Amino acid sequence: MWLADALMRLAGSGAGHESISEAQLRSLVAASRMIDGEERRIIDEVLAAGARHVREVMVPRTDVVFLDTALPLAAADSLTRTARYSRFPVIDGSHDDVVGFVHLRDLLIRPEPDGTGTVGELAREIKRLPAGKRILSALSEMRREGHHLAVVVDEYGGTAGIVTLEDLIEELIGEITDEYDVAPDPAPADGAMPAEVDGRLNLADFAELTGIELPAGPYETVAGFLMARLGRLPGVGDETHLDSWRLVVVAVEGRRVARVALMAPAAGGRIALD
User: Which domain of life is it from (predicted)?
Assistant: First the structure.
């Protein structure tokens, strides 16, 4: 309870408390005799995750299933039954004009499922979050207001993606999986370098998984790094070098880099940066 209160104060959302800085919280943790080594490690991870922004954990708009307000309910039924999601943003003609969302049960469990209505008739209010909002602050705000889904808005007012309460919580406590989640990439044995990674992997997770820190830039993911380095849309077989590693595009979905292979160069040398 003490930690939860301190974290909410760090996010500036503790009722009746003034916010505290991360340095102050770390000092409190260091001075406490009630927190053991493992608990300190967890707190460090929470603080590190809390420093990230919503744009780093959101589902990008290219991976979101949108439903148009004019879509007949019968058509929406068949579309959503095959999806792995339970909540769907509702748009009015454009992905940048999100007017609400519908839950799967709204579509499948209706008093009179005659199929003559439209998705827009069932749309609920949806929350909006700026892409640059901190994770801890966003989590606190969504919990306080009772929202499970939010549209992430970029600096131009367009839709960058969506984020769920589960996405934010997972950044603090680790992955929450259920029977509908896609199985994550297996962790390499004994800390070995993975052969491939998902192109959507954000920079912090990539560094944690591989030990390779990609240079900061106008991107949040491995795919974004490759696009910036190449200066164009990557294709299968495109590659770039980073220190002694080659990052090679091995799969593309549409215009997005789906999988990236990590390859060490042949013995006998170090490859310079491009």
Answer: Bacteria
